[in-house]
User: Which sequence fits this backbone?
């Protein structure tokens, strides 16, 4: 299947066996836990609504197919949850790969460039980050916008300033906000609305959230939310894979965790006497709800849009963590700050790099002048 | 005798490439080499003009080639014999000036100044080195260019007595019996500028122990701990205004021999090594030796690539019959071509191919020595700022990824601000090795430096 390798044409005459394809393949591997947990939870939420709340199942090809396969609405059955979730999970992924792949292929073809494997990760992350039941044409519109205006107009993969996947999702977030707020169903059942943990937190506070879900449930990801982002446990497995293989920067992930913890402790101290119910939430809850884990592990670690100096990466992660918590706790309009904070820090990545580089080159310049 | 202080430097980042085919510690008798050559491309920026007619007799140390733009830059004949041919390549560029070596002829004795070396004037040392053909062993960083004879004294001279390149011969072993020569060489160089002797093995520090103006530095750690670029970065950062000179320890010992006896030493100990060699060995070869009679008998069966120099920064031999040992190369590496290697796929377990990245399983067999081949294992992509670059690049004040981006963008100003002038292609060899996007950063840096040098 793979082609013959070209031979080296300049020194060094041998090369490391790793290539970009391998790196991107490893990210996909690290996304498998997220995919599986996403399928399971989406199915679980739907079966819960149908079986326990007595909602009517959504009429359509999914229900027909599940009925034909003999899958019941049983939220206790692992397979029933997994397959029902997969029915909702796989179509957006297919749309994202096919539509995004078309644009990618078209631009590479016109420019005479090789197809860049980083597209696989963009498409997979985009598919996994969509809300349940988003119309397919909207999904196609989002990925098209991202690939064209966030990546290809800048010269293609490796030259983009903003994370392509985040721009795609951000485009949807601002164009069709009702899909991303609590009023729209986050479960795969018609007419059924349920609040995500973040909405609950913002409106009723941490005690109500604790009454609805245990911390373990939130950690494993058995809460309503976008297709693949609810499970912090799956993201943790992914983080271990990515850090162990050296694909993702531990500095960025570590920086985000530390930033979230610092900001939480700060807000906890401000909480007494404030009518903002989010402030009192302890950091171990903040780390497992919303898309902090998903964004922190898979999106913020995109090396192309992050700073390229090791020190810069640490600052970048820290700033994302602080900014994310500020948006989440202090801004009632958008309860989810992950996407916005990473996009904003993408803008600042060159500035962070500039500061780190200036500091390092100044040190060198002083030594040159001293000698 | 009080031993002067030795400064220790620990290098933490880098990579010792586990290449198969390490040499033994025995220096063997070399086969007779009848052809040697001066290869002008060993000296970056040189526009050569040959000063001797074909068929004339030359003696070792006699000026053979002069730079067209600066007649203070002169390269000497490496050995005595008859100038037999001038090999030319594309656009008639001189590839090699070939001398039919005549090993039995009596080498002339070069007249030396009187008195102890410590009392010689800098001018006298320069004249002696020029007359003995040893001046061109010195190179100037930035650019690693040859130095005009009347160049102002540099901030420092680095003598590199450590070689951490894969399969390199240990300079402490090679110079084991030549401490007096090295000591004399250091004393002579110290007449020109302060000397930094950079070592991997403390035993050689004794050569500098009673030399005024010579300081010893022991570098330990993985490659590039033995590259002069790193030594310069740690000890004496350079720019256009403050260049430094450097030379290899074997060349410094040859300078010492010239100073002690007036004899031109044209032999160097060279490692013939690599996975494609039947029995890796150390040989004493004349400078610029023809490779065919030396390497030919050592080759294993199979499709090989022969590199003059190390696998990381050597020169590819395209036609063995017309190939000569590089002026600053102390090894010849023979590696399998690996023309049937496939690009590393997503699902390959990858235990049979070497990688320092942990996305493949090669790191599990960390004691294995690998027969690395010439496959790139992937196709070129745009710069991907992998953290691997930082792992193999120990130049603390040079941010590697921004530098690589500047090189790719041909942004001279940024590259220079980041410290590109301190580097030469060999310093980016490891970064190029680990790059998952298979970009030839080292070669591109060379082109950028050529551009900077030509534009002045």
Assistant:
């Amino acid at each position: 299947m793979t082609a013959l390798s070209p031979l080296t044409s300049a020194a060094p005459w041998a090369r490391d066996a790793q290539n970009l394809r391998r790196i991107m393949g490893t990210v996909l591997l690290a996304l498998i836990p997220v995919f599986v947990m996403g399928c399971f939870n989406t199915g679980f939420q739907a079966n819960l609504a149908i079986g326990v709340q007595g909602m009517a199942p959504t009429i359509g090809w999914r229900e027909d197919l599940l009925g034909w396969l003999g899958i019941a609405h049983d939220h206790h059955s692992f397979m029933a949850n997994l397959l029902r979730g997969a029915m909702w999970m796989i179509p957006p992924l297919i749309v994202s790969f096919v539509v995004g792949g078309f644009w990618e292929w078209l631009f590479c073809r016109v420019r005479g460039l090789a197809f860049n494997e980083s597209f696989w990760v963009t498409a997979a992350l985009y598919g996994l980050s969509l809300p349940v039941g988003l119309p397919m044409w909207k999904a196609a519109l989002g990925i098209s916008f991202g690939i064209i205006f966030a990546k290809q107009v800048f010269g293609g993969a490796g030259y983009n300033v903003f994370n392509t996947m985040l721009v795609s999702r951000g485009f949807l977030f601002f164009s069709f906000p009702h899909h991303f707020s609590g009023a729209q169903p986050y479960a795969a059942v018609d007419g059924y609305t349920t609040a995500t943990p973040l909405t609950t937190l913002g409106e009723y506070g941490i005690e109500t959230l604790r009454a609805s879900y245990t911390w373990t449930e939130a950690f494993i990801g058995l809460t309503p939310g976008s297709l693949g982002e609810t499970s912090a446990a799956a993201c943790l497995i992914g983080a271990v894979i990515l850090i162990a293989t050296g694909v993702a920067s531990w500095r960025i992930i570590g920086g985000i965790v530390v930033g979230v913890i610092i900001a939480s402790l700060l807000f906890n101290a401000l909480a007494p006497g404030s009518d903002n119910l989010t402030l009192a939430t302890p950091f171990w809850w903040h780390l497992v709800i919303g898309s902090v884990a998903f964004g922190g592990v898979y999106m913020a670690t995109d090396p192309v849009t992050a700073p390229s100096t090791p020190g810069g990466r640490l600052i970048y992660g820290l700033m994302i963590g602080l900014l994310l918590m500020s948006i989440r706790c202090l801004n009632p309009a958008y309860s989810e700050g992950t996407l916005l904070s990473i996009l904003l820090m993408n803008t600042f990545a060159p500035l962070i790099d500039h500061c780190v580089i200036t500091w390092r080159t100044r040190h060198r310049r002083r030594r040159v002048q001293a000698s | 005798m009080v031993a002067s202080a030795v400064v220790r430097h620990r290098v933490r980042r880098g990579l010792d490439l586990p290449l198969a085919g390490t040499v033994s510690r025995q220096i063997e008798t070399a086969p007779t080499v009848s052809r040697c050559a001066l290869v002008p491309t060993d000296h970056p920026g040189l526009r050569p003009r040959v000063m001797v007619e074909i068929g004339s007799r030359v003696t070792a140390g006699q000026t053979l080639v002069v730079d067209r733009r600066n007649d203070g830059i002169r390269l000497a004949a490496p050995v005595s014999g008859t100038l037999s041919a001038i090999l030319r390549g594309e656009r008639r560029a001189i590839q090699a000036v070939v001398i039919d070596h005549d090993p039995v002829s009596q080498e002339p004795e070069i007249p030396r100044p009187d008195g102890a070396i410590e009392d010689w004037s800098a001018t006298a040392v320069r004249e002696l080195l020029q007359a003995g053909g040893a001046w061109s062993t010195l190179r100037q960083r930035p650019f690693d260019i040859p130095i005009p004879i009347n160049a102002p004294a540099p901030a420092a001279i680095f003598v590199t007595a450590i070689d951490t390149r894969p399969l390199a011969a240990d300079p402490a072993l090679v110079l084991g019996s030549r401490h007096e020569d090295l000591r004399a060489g250091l004393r002579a160089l110290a007449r020109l500028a302060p000397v930094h002797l950079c070592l991997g093995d403390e035993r050689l520090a004794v050569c500098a122990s009673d030399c005024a103006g010579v300081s010893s530095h022991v570098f330990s750690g993985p490659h590039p701990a033995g590259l002069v670029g790193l030594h310069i970065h740690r000890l004496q950062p350079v720019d256009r205004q403050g260049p430094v000179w450097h030379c290899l320890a074997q060349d410094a010992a040859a300078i010492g021999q010239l100073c002690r006896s007036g004899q031109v030493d044209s032999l160097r100990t060279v490692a013939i090594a690599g996975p494609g060699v039947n029995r890796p060995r150390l040989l004493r070869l004349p400078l610029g030796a023809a490779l065919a009679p030396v390497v030919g008998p050592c080759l294993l069966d199979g499709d090989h690539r022969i590199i003059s120099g190390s696998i990381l920064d050597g020169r590819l031999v395209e036609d063995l019959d017309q190939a000569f040992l590089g002026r600053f190369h102390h090894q010849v590496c023979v590696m399998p071509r690996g023309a049937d290697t496939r690009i590393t796929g997503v699902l390959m377990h990858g235990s049979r191919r070497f990688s320092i990245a942990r996305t493949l399983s090669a790191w599990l067999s960390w004691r294995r020595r690998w027969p690395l081949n010439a496959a790139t294992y992937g196709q070129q992509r745009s710069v991907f700022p992998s953290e691997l670059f930082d792992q193999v690049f120990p130049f603390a004040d040079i941010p590697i990824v921004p530098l690589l981006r500047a090189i790719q963008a041909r942004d001279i100003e940024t590259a220079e601000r980041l410290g590109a002038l301190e580097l030469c292609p060999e310093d980016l060899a490891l970064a190029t090795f680990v790059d998952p996007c298979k970009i030839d950063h080292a070669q591109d840096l060379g082109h950028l430096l050529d551009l900077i040098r030509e534009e002045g």
The CA atoms of residues 86 and 285 of chain B lie 21 Å apart. Chain B has a mean pLDDT of 91.
